[in-house]
Each structure stands twice: as structure tokens, then as C-alpha cells.
């Protein structure tokens, strides 16, 4: 049988009814059950949650039935829930493992599975690889199943519908009084995803004036990717400007990433959000510590860290590397340019709900418009601009392309002095002027991703154009 299950940096994602099927989900659940028994962890519960995608509730229950049939106690969050809430529940219940049925920001035709480990962490490759191998070896007769009604009757599956514990955990970490006295106007865009209930509850508790768009369930996500960026947030931008709001907050399909529109109707790149929150934690909250970013994230964080006598740590792409390095170094914030971040003391994974709440707190406590707060940062630390692009390729060309880039280091002539080159994850070229460019293959989609950061966008675009010409992308 072909290996249809393949975990990448964001879990296993595949097209529904192609390889993302009931059988394959049950294979993963059986493989996870086997691992739990091998580790003698069967006395600890397993948490399962799901997003708003087509058949997500059904896939979650099918997985739960397999886990229960293997003698495991399952806590299923039986309503669409943010992935960070599922991770928080894994940690709160002291589970050895948890699962989320989600394809995050992928197109609507996809669904997926994320596996979490003790402490609510993204499973590392040394966990997912054995699960993947085992799952791909499982046949129909190897899967144990129990009917939902029987599992509920026997107490093997417990149903949770409340989000209060997670919401309260966030409320406990923010200055509610400061937000209440600021009387802020906020527009939310869950992008037809799962953040509406949590964000509305948190911000209304803080007495914000909240309006919400795209809040109903739409498994086609309005015909757009549920990924917050300048192109997909045009409706949010319009609402922020028309309502005179202080901030617009969007989250992706499973609410682990966010996008921000400022009071002027400008989209803030995730790099800018990271810099905003890092300076806020250091300068306003008085925290002390470094930051962690992946290779494709702004080096402006390095400048902020250096100015405060701290260190910025660079890790490969994949949030598990960010959270691991944070735990190792005591860094106060970690994130990536794709819109995910977390803060020390919260979960060890991305959380768009908590990040959005922190930004609201920052605006309230600083007493300035968001646009002015970032202008102040640029005045102090300078400006760097990132340009990024994705290039698709024929599957039969992937190995040859990987050989050219990774083994032969066949790179374009950028016409700039090179400081050094790293192959930690893909190939990253560091230029003497402080700029950089990275070329790497996506871990979740058949794409070659290119990121370039320079003092201005024109220089960055020129470097990416060299990549296009060199590898003859269309």
C-alpha cells in the first residue's frame, strides 16, 4: 500500500477524499494509540479538537472512536475550537498526546491532522516520523473501533463544549482595567474560522466596542484562502476605516496565526507584529529575555534584542523549533513571518487569539494610535522590508531542483557582497549590507518559497527576480 500519510512542518495535510480519508485518519489514530501503549501512557487522557472545515467534526469523532477502542480515555472538544485552545487543553489536563483536525490556512479542499505532545507542544519530527511509518503500514484489519454511543456510555469519551478555561487563562494575563478605560473600537475577522467566540468574549469582557465580519461557518471560506494577508483582508480594511476603529484583528482558519490592520487601514506584516510585541514586553511590561525567530523572519528583531542587551536566536522553519528554543533559552517571545507567535508563560505554540489580545492591551496602555506606535519603532531601529513569493513546480522536477539548490549550491549572482551562507533549512544567503534571502521547499504544499529582506522593497524584489530567472520559474 502506498505511503499516503506524510507529516510536514504543520502536521499532515491532504486533499479531502483523495488521501485525507476516514481510513487514513483512523490509521493515524491507531498508530498514535500503539505509540501511547508502547510508552505506557494509556492512563493519561488524549484531547481531540477540530476546526470549521468540511467533515472536521466527523473526522475527529472517527479518530476518537479508534483511540477509545484501544482503551484510551478521550476528551473531545465537540465544537469548532482554536488550535491554541486545543494545545492549552492538552497542557492543562496533563495529557501525553493530543490531536487537532485542521488544515490551518490551506485551501478549502484540504483537511489535516496536527499531533501535540506533553505540555501542549507541536510534535517533533522524532515523534511524527514513527507515527507516519506505523500509520502507513496499517491495514483495515489492524484498526480497532468502538461505536460513539458505546464509548460515551462506557466513559471512554468525555465531551467538552466550554471554552471558559482557555478564555480565563488569557484574561488572567492581560490588564483588563487598562483596556476598559481605553474604550477601544475593534473589528474582528475570523475568516469563517474558529476565533469568533473566544476573541469576542475576551474583548467584550474588556469593554471594547467590537464588530465582527465573516463569522458564520463557510467551509469554502468565502472563496478565499483562510490566511490573513494584505490581499485577503480587504473587507476588514474597509470596515476598520469606515468605523474609525483602533485595530482590525484577523485570524487564520484555526486561529493560530493572525493579521492586523492598523487605525489608518494599513496591513501590518507579521514581522511588524513581532517587533511591536517584543518591544512592548521589554519596555512596557519590563520583561527580560531574548527572542526566537525562524530563518524567514525579520532581522529587525535582532536590532531590538541587541539594543536591550538580549539575544535573538535563529531556528529552522516549523514552530516546534521556535518553542523548543524558547524553552531552552528563556526567550520572552518567538515567532515567524507567516503570522504565528507565542509569548513566554503561555502555550508552547502559536496563538492568534492571545497575540491579538496583547496588541489591544498595548494600544490601551501606550495611549497612542497603533500606526504611531510602529512609526516610533522605525524611527528608533530603522526599516527593513520583506518581499516573499511562492513558485509551484512539477512533482517530477522536485528532486532535480533540490539537488541544484541544496547539494550543488547553484545560486543566482545577486550582484551583492555575500557575508555567509547557511543550509540549516533550505539555503539562506546573508549579505554584507544586512539583507538576506532564503530559498526553501514548503513543508505543507508543493511550493518553493523565497523570502528576501532588504533596506527597501525594490532591492528585495530585484533579488527574487534573480531567483526566478536563474531557475526559470514562470
Automatic annotation (TrEMBL):
Cofactor: Mg(2+)
Domain of life: Bacteria
Entry's Gene Ontology BP terms: carbohydrate metabolic process; purine ribonucleoside salvage
GO function term, MF aspect, one: magnesium ion binding
SUPFAM superfamilies: Phosphoglucomutase, C-terminal domain, Phosphoglucomutase, first 3 domains
One Pfam family this sequence matches: PGM_PMM_IV
InterPro entries per UniProt: A-D-PHexomutase_a/b/a-I, A-D-PHexomutase_a/b/a-I/II/III, A-D-PHexomutase_a/b/a-II, A-D-PHexomutase_a/b/a-III, A-D-PHexomutase_C, A-D-PHexomutase_C_sf, A-D-PHexomutase_CS, Alpha-D-phosphohexomutase_SF
Domain Alpha-D-phosphohexomutase alpha/beta/alpha: start-end pairs: 5-138, 166-265, 270-381
PROSITE patterns tied to this protein: PGM_PMM
Sequence ranges assigned to domain Alpha-D-phosphohexomutase C-terminal in this UniProt record: 424-469
Keywords assigned by UniProt, alphabetized: Isomerase, Magnesium, Metal-binding, Phosphoprotein
Family per record: Belongs to the phosphohexose mutase family.
PANTHER family (alphabetical): PHOSPHOGLUCOMUTASE 2B-RELATED, PHOSPHOMANNOMUTASE 45A
Protein name in the entry: Phosphonomutase
Amino acid at each position: 500500500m502506498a505511503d499516503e500519510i506524510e507529516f510536514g512542518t504543520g502536521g499532515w495535510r491532504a486533499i479531502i477524499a483523495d488521501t485525507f480519508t476516514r481510513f487514513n485518519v483512523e490509521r493515524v489514530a491507531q498508530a498514535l494509540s500503539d505509540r501511547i501503549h508502547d510508552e505506557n501512557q494509556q492512563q493519561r487522557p488524549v484531547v481531540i479538537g477540530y476546526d470549521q472545515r468540511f467533515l472536521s467534526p466527523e473526522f475527529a469523532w472517527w479518530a476518537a472512536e479508534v483511540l477509545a477502542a484501544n482503551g484510551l480515555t478521550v476528551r473531545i472538544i465537540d465544537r469548532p475550537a482554536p488550535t491554541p485552545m486545543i494545545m492549552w487543553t492538552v497542557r492543562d489536563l496533563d495529557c501525553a498526546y493530543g490531536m487537532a483536525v485542521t488544515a490551518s490556512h490551506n485551501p478549502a479542499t484540504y483537511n489535516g491532522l496536527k499531533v501535540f505532545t506533553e505540555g501542549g507542544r507541536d510534535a517533533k519530527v522524532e515523534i511524527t516520523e514513527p507515527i507516519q511509518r506505523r500509520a502507513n503500514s496499517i491495514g483495515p484489519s489492524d484498526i480497532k473501533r468502538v461505536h460513539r454511543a458505546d464509548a460515551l456510555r462506557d466513559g471512554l469519551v468525555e465531551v467538552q463544549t466550554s471554552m471558559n478555561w482557555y478564555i480565563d487563562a488569557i484574561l488572567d494575563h492581560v490588564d483588563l482595567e487598562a483596556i476598559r478605560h481605553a474604550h477601544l473600537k475593534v473589528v474582528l475577522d475570523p475568516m469563517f474560522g474558529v476565533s469568533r467566540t473566544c476573541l469576542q468574549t475576551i474583548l467584550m469582557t474588556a469593554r471594547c466596542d467590537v464588530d465582527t465580519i465573516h463569522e458564520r461557518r463557510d467551509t469554502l471560506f468565502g472563496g478565499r484562502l483562510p490566511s490573513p494577508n494584505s490581499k485577503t483582508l480587504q473587507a476588514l480594511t474597509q470596515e476598520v476605516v469606515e468605523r474609525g476603529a483602533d485595530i482590525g484583528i484577523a485570524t487564520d482558519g484555526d486561529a493560530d496565526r493572525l493579521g492586523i490592520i492598523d487605525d489608518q487601514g494599513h496591513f501590518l506584516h507579521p514581522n511588524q507584529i513581532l517587533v511591536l510585541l517584543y518591544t512592548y514586553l521589554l519596555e512596557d511590561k519590563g520583561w527580560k529575555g531574548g527572542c526566537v525567530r525562524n530563518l524567514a523572519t525579520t532581522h529587525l528583531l535582532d536590532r531590538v534584542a541587541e539594543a536591550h542587551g538580549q539575544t535573538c536566536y535563529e531556528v529552522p522553519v516549523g514552530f516546534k523549533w521556535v518553542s523548543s528554543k524558547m524553552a531552552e533559552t528563556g526567550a520572552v517571545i518567538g515567532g515567524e513571518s507567516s503570522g504565528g507567535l507565542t509569548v513566554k508563560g503561555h502555550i508552547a505554540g502559536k496563538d492568534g487569539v492571545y497575540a491579538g489580545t496583547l496588541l489591544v492591551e498595548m494600544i490601551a496602555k501606550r495611549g497612542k494610535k497603533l500606526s504611531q506606535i510602529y512609526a516610533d519603532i522605525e524611527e528608533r531601529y530603522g526599516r527593513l522590508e520583506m518581499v516573499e513569493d511562492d513558485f509551484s513546480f512539477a512533482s517530477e522536477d522536485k528532486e532535480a531542483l533540490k539537488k541544484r539548490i541544496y547539494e550543488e549550491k547553484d545560486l543566482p549572482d545577486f550582484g551583492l557582497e555575500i557575508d555567509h551562507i547557511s543550509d540549516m533549512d533550505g539555503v539562506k544567503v546573508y549579505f554584507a549590507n544586512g539583507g538576506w534571502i532564503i530559498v526553501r521547499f514548503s513543508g505543507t504544499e508543493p511550493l518553493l518559497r523565497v523570502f528576501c529582506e532588504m533596506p527597501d522593497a525594490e532591492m528585495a524584489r530585484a533579488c527574487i527576480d534573480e531567483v526566478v530567472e536563474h531557475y526559470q520559474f514562470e
